[in-house]
From TrEMBL:
Keyword Transport assigned: no
Domain of life: Eukaryota
Organism annotation: Elysia marginata
Name of this chain's protein: Nose resistant to fluoxetine protein 6
Keywords attached to this entry: Membrane, Transmembrane, Transmembrane helix
InterPro entries, per the entry: O2_lipid_transport_reg (IPR052728)
Transmembrane spans: 22-37, 44-65, 85-113, 125-145, 157-181
Length: 199
């Protein structure tokens, strides 16, 4: 399982293939449209909000821990082809549905402490960098692992240190790129749109 997970064919045929991400994309587009066009019409009550939070939490945990047994046993009790196909086909979309529920609940006043936590001011800065971080994180990972000259033996501590290091470097580069590219383009867009509205 671990070998297949990091193989070149996995990345080319599944991880990087845009059609494999169409489900979460559609879920996000539909959610964004509903919030932009119909937010005032979305009416939730306590029971619907509770069921929504329970369902979203259960689905998210199923996606996260769905492969636990398979990975823990190192392939001894690997999933069948049908189970693996089912998980791969639906996991990303199910995760997107869970995240979209959190967004809808927070936007309609049913977010509770989750909304308070996600509204914390330091997250605003990280939120502005998140898309750039998404775009460049694969390059950072490729550069790091591509420059290794010896075999790596992953332990939990080593994996955690790699994760933290890659996150920090990715956000550092994202900040530089935001200052160099995104911020000037946003300023230019405001000037162009402002002039167009005057005309």
């Amino acid at each position: 399982m671990a070998v297949g997970l990091y193989s070149k064919s996995y990345f080319e045929n599944y991880y990087e293939a845009p059609w494999c991400r169409i489900g979460p994309y559609i879920v996000g587009i539909v959610t964004g449209y509903l919030l932009a066009a119909q937010r005032d019409r979305i009416k939730l009550n306590w029971s619907i909000a509770t069921i929504g939070w329970l369902a979203a939490t259960a689905v998210a945990l199923a996606v996260i821990f769905g492969l636990h047994k398979d990975l823990e046993n190192a392939g001894e009790h690997a999933m069948s082809v049908a189970e693996a196909a089912f998980y791969n086909a639906l996991a990303s979309t199910a995760w997107a549905v869970s995240i979209c529920w959190v967004i809808v609940a927070c936007a309609t006043g049913w977010g509770g402490f989750v909304n308070s936590f996600l509204s914390w001011s330091p997250f605003v800065v990280l939120g502005r960098l998140s898309y750039l971080a998404y775009l460049i994180h694969v390059a950072v990972i490729d550069v790091y692992f591509g420059n290794q000259r010896t075999l790596l033996y992953f332990t939990s501590l080593h994996f955690a240190m790699c994760f933290v290091g890659i996150i920090v470097v990715t956000y550092m580069f994202s900040f530089v790129l935001m200052l160099a590219l995104e911020s000037p383009m946003i300023g230019l867009e405001k000037v162009v749109l402002h002039q167009r509205t005057k005309i």
